[in-house]
Input
Amino acid sequence: MASPRTRRVLKEVRTQDENNLCFECGAFNPQWVSVTYGIWICLECSGKHRGLGVHLSFVRSVTMDKWKDIELEKMKAGGNGKFRKFLEQQDDYDGCWTLQEKYNSRAAALFRDQVLTIAEGKVWSLETSPAKDWTPPQPKTGLSSAHRSSAGPSQNSGPPPDRAFEDWLSNDINSYQGGGGYSNQENRYVGFGNTVTPQKKEDDFFNNAMTSIYSGWSSFTVGATKFATVAKENTTKLANQATHKAAELGQTLNENVIKPTHEKVTLGLQLILVMGF
Output
């Protein structure tokens, strides 16, 4: 989680230099950044930047990740507008670059070096930049299995011509991964906008307990549903039986009590009338 100071600094930087839009697609209100260039990117484009590798683009979340001072300084040194103008001024600039071509270009390498140098409080110049003679890496072509078997054991061909610049990139990566107190397991995720911590045993106990609760509740729900269905059926049967019994009782009262009583009353009235006359 970003600290209040980090949020304050990023809020100030965000209002500058076209930083309120995603550098790649122009989406409004980006919540992710590439610290390497100090540029702001949206969630979708942050995934594409992660695919480049941390040596080309180190991705951070504005709100969810912890930030180092050097990372905040890089955000101040870079910026969407600065990066765009810098690219357009370079001889190798191509407006039709793919994402891979753009960030593997000499122009991007120069800007990476510029941002890092300024963030460290130094003065940057093209003449002294270790990236000035950098060339994009060439795709490696694999040999067929038949060719490899006939060629015999491979020979050491020596370091590639851009080895010096790769060493320089490694130093830049180490500025993030070194000295942070993270284990090798955790370092695999550095730069992916998420700091992974191993799951504690207490978490396992809690998850197991919650699973048991959910399972028990599900069983209870099924049982309660069946009980309600049976209760409804029994209630209907009882109601029908009560109605039938009431009808039988009414008939019995009518035949054994009400009807004989009515007959006796009628007979008594008739006797009174006869005796009266």
In short: Residues 143-157, 175-199 have pLDDT under 50 and may be disordered. The longest strand covers residues 32-34. DSSP finds ten helices and three strands in the chain. Strands lie at 32-34, 39-41, 59-61.
